[in-house]
Design brief:
alpha+beta, 2,3-Dihydroxybiphenyl 1,2-Dioxygenase, domain 1, five-stranded mixed beta sheet, four-stranded mixed beta sheet, 3 helices, 9 strands, 31% strand
Amino acid sequence: MAGNGQGLMQTRHLGHVVLYVRDLQRSLAFYRDLLGLRSLGEAFNGRACMLTSGRTHHELLLLEVGDAPAPPAGRRLGLYHIGWCIGDDDAALAKAKAELEAAGIVIEGMSDHWVSHSLYLRDPDGNEIELYVDVPGYDWDSRTEWLTQPVKPLNL
């Protein structure tokens, strides 16, 4: 079936992501305290928490599972990364980079995707996180180089 957006139903937007985490409080320190998501409160005897950026009732649900294997490195099936839009321009991305580095977070990569600029890092459980800003004024619907051209290095 071709992904032409003309299926039987119309998907509006990605609503939320659910992650299994080793330690809920450690993950809340990352997603809530560092990335700025708002906690809506813990559930299931303190083993789960829903978080929001304010766009919807929740975009992220964290479920504590305790000691379990981390995501395998390299190419594999399943989740590659989660992308969070964090602002409107490179100044917001540069500010985030400085805050992350001050908190001891390693920036694993920085990319210019033509349509967006991104930082890549890992959450406490090894899940890859992309923090990005859309390039102001870039018309992704009519310009196609972002689909076909190589990703460029980003210098902030």
